[in-house]
Amino acid sequence: MKQTYFTAGPAELYPTVSQHLQTAMDEQIGSISHRSAKFRSIYQFCDEQLRELLTIPESHGIFFTGSASEVWERILLNCVEHESFHLVNGSFSKKFCDYATALQKYAHKQEKPFGEGFDYSEIEVPEYAELIAVTHNETSSGVQMRPVDIHKLKRSHAKKLIAVDMVSSAPFPDLDFSLVDTAFFSVQKAFGLPAGLGVWIANEKCLEKAETLKHGDQHIGAHNNLPMLWKNYKTYETPATPNVLFIYLLGKIAQDFNRIGVENLRRETEEKAKMLYKFVESHPQFSPFVKNDRHRSRTVVVANTQKPSSEIISKVKESGMVVGSGYGQFKDTQIRIANFPATDVEQIGRLIEVLGKI
Ligand SMILES: *Cc1c(COP(=O)(O)O)cnc(C)c1O
Fold it and tell me: Which residues form the Aminotransferase class V domain (predicted)?
């Protein structure tokens, strides 16, 4: 049976993917040189569409990597000499912090119990931290940090760089890139593409920092370091042979999103999130895991289940829908429902109907 995937990534493919894929095949995208004018125009198109979608100013470059977790390492190598500071409220933010330790940085962290989020007022940034790492949407726990809090954090620590993991929410959060120095996402979450491409947005301040570290004989990495990515980016090229097909597809999906309008996408995401939270709050078999509404993710809804989650997951599957299990220790007691643009109000409504009969 054909399933609708409400999983948090890989996720349901955006409905237009197969048609764009067919066009890519017809145009033999898979065989063109990454040093050709054709590729440069594909990169440029993707860049322009993402700029429009996320309101990215000229001070920032847009680069491609293998995945989002690769970007954790790139940011730490290129933007941190000694100390980073991590807001940890789930497994992904914790991994970002673990990468810092593995790269022999001094990684400070402020940590929250699973299911709780951060507000600006309670954050204490260590004096010597060069970079503040925040996760807009914790895919593991279903917790979000509101852009307003992220912006305040940067304003009050203007000299530090701020990095935002927007992997499982972009293009939903309305981030002000005049404040956000660097951000990143993967395409297999809310952009509704198969996995295989990471997108790294970074500004000139990040580049300056990387140049300074490099000239100070610090190791900034041989592969995809920022100065090299930026140099190639000037002609819409990449240091290594990139995933040309996916850069093409991402440009097309971003264009589709722009045609709908990011405001409309965001409004629809809010509307579907409301439907899901209202349901899990009112149904006796479920309850929302994240108690505080302002910390509730709008793109990954996590619900506690009365019955073992595996029972719910298999029941839902019989109706042609896939929801995710809880993360880590919550595997058996929670379900996670992705709320990405690929599934519309009607599909969310149908999922709620099926869950309601359990
Ligand atoms: C999925 C995810 C990542 C890692 O993305 P990959 O594409 O697997 O490298 C990082 N952060 C968050 C919040 C995620 O949801």
Answer: 127-326
